[in-house]
Design goal:
By secondary structure, this protein is an alpha/beta fold. The protein contains nine helices and eleven strands. The chain is 34% helix and 22% strand.
C-alpha cells in the first residue's frame, strides 16, 4: 500500500490555480519556509492542531486513498470539460510528497481525461519531475528569487535546484506558467526583472506565461492560531511598481498577468 500524503484542503470551483474551473488538492508539507507564506498550515508534513477563530482546537490535515481523491475530483468533471479546467496539485509542495501516490493520482486523472496542473516551488528531486511530466499538462512554477542568496535568506534554501528543475521542464517541452512574487523594496525593481529575463534568455527557457504575484498579508492570523511567530512582515508593492515590472516583461515578449 502506498504511503498516503496528508491533504489539508480540497478546494472545488477554484479559478486561480490554472485555466478554467478546477479542483485544487492542497498537500501538506513543504521543504522551504517562505517568510511571506500565507498558508503556514501547509508547511509541516502530517496533521497538526490549529486553533479556530472561536477558540476551539481543529486538526489540520487528513489522509485519503487515491480512489477517494479521484472520486472527489471526478464529481465535477462536467465543469472542467465545459470551462477547459481540471485538477491542480498544490501545497505545501506536491513534488516533495510520496511520488508513487502522486503519480498514481495523476495517471488516474489522465485516464479519465481530466487535465492535471502542478503548482510547485521547484524544490524537489529532478527525478520526481521526470516521473510526473508525462501526466501534467501545465506547471505553475514559482521562481521566488533569481539571486540565490536572497532565496536562501527568505526561504531557507538556495535556488540552484529550482533553476535546475525549471531548465529540465523547459528542455522536455513542459508548458510553464512562471510565477513571480513581488515584495516591496526587495525584488519589485527593474534590475530584478531584467536579471530574470536575461537568465531565461541565456538558458533558452520557454515560458508560456508569467504571473506577477504582489505580496499580501492574508493569513497573518493563522500564525497565532498555530502558536507560531508571524513572518509576514513585508511591504506591499504599489500599483505603479507592479505596472512597471509588468511592462518590462511585456516589452520582452512575455504574456503577463497580475495574480495567480
Amino acid at each position: 500500500m502506498k504511503a498516503q500524503p496528508t491533504i489539508f484542503n480540497i478546494q472545488k470551483f477554484s479559478t486561480h490555480d490554472g485555466p478554467g474551473i478546477r479542483t485544487t488538492i492542497f498537500f501538506k508539507g513543504c521543504p522551504i519556509r517562505c517568510a511571506w507564506c500565507h498558508n503556514p498550515e501547509s508547511q509541516k508534513f502530517g496533521p497538526e492542531i490549529m486553533i479556530t477563530k472561536d477558540g476551539k482546537e481543529e486538526v489540520i490535515g487528513q489522509t485519503y486513498s487515491v480512489k477517494e481523491v479521484v472520486k472527489k475530483i471526478k464529481a465535477d468533471q462536467i465543469f472542467y470539460d465545459q470551462s477547459g479546467g481540471g485538477v491542480t496539485f498544490s501545497g505545501g509542495e506536491v513534488m516533495a510528497q510520496n511520488l508513487d501516490y502522486i503519480e498514481e493520482l495523476a495517471c488516474e486523472c489522465q485516464r479519465l481525461g481530466i487535465s492535471v496542473a502542478i503548482d510547485t516551488c521547484g524544490v524537489a528531486p529532478t527525478e520526481n519531475f521526470a516521473r510526473i511530466l508525462p501526466y501534467a499538462e501545465l506547471f505553475l512554477y514559482d521562481l521566488k528569487f533569481i539571486d540565490s542568496q536572497l532565496h536562501q535568506r527568505y526561504t531557507g534554501s538556495g535556488n540552484e535546484l529550482v533553476l535546475k528543475n525549471l531548465q529540465y521542464l523547459s528542455d522536455h517541452g513542459a508548458t510553464i506558467h512562471l510565477r513571480l512574487i513581488l515584495l516591496g523594496e526587495i525584488n519589485e525593481d527593474t534590475l530584478t526583472a531584467t536579471a530574470i529575463i536575461e537568465w531565461l534568455n541565456q538558458q533558452n527557457i520557454h515560458v508560456d506565461e508569467i504571473s506577477l504575484l504582489p505580496y499580501h498579508e492574508f493569513g497573518r492570523d493563522k500564525y497565532q492560531r498555530l502558536q507560531r511567530i508571524c513572518t509576514q512582515n513585508f511591504i506591499k508593492p504599489t500599483d505603479e511598481q507592479i505596472d512597471e515590472v509588468k511592462n518590462i516583461y511585456t516589452t520582452a515578449g512575455y504574456s503577463v498577468k497580475i495574480g495567480g
